[in-house]
Amino acid sequence: MFTLTAILRAKPGQEEAVKAALLKVGAYVRAHEPETIGFFVTRSADDPCVFVTHERFTDRAAMDRHNNGAGSQGFFAEAGDLLDGTATVVTGPEAFEL
């Protein structure tokens, strides 16, 4: 398995629009990306502008297809200007599964 975690910060006042765009990505993944086997979004309890995606793929190639696909590209086209700075992204092979 291969994972990607992204920390995104919405500009103040744009939190709900960023959340809606992330939900669209999730719906797209569910319908079109069978090799994306997990896509979760957390919204910080301490800072409502902060969102974290937790994404799990069958392999790196599946992650690359996801990142270059319509769902992810559509998110950044829709929400890119609503984000405060660039995303912090960590990717790598899964080291442990519960």
TrEMBL record:
<dbReference type="InterPro" id="IPR011008">
    <property type="entry name" value="Dimeric_a/b-barrel"/>
</dbReference>
<dbReference type="Pfam" id="PF03992">
    <property type="entry name" value="ABM"/>
</dbReference>
<dbReference type="GO" id="GO:0004497">
    <property type="term" value="F:monooxygenase activity"/>
</dbReference>
<feature type="domain" description="ABM">
    <location>
        <begin position="2"/>
        <end position="91"/>
    </location>
</feature>
<keyword id="KW-0503">Monooxygenase</keyword>
<dbReference type="InterPro" id="IPR007138">
    <property type="entry name" value="ABM_dom"/>
</dbReference>
<keyword id="KW-0560">Oxidoreductase</keyword>
<protein>
    <submittedName>
        <fullName>Quinol monooxygenase</fullName>
        <ecNumber>1.-.-.-</ecNumber>
    </submittedName>
</protein>
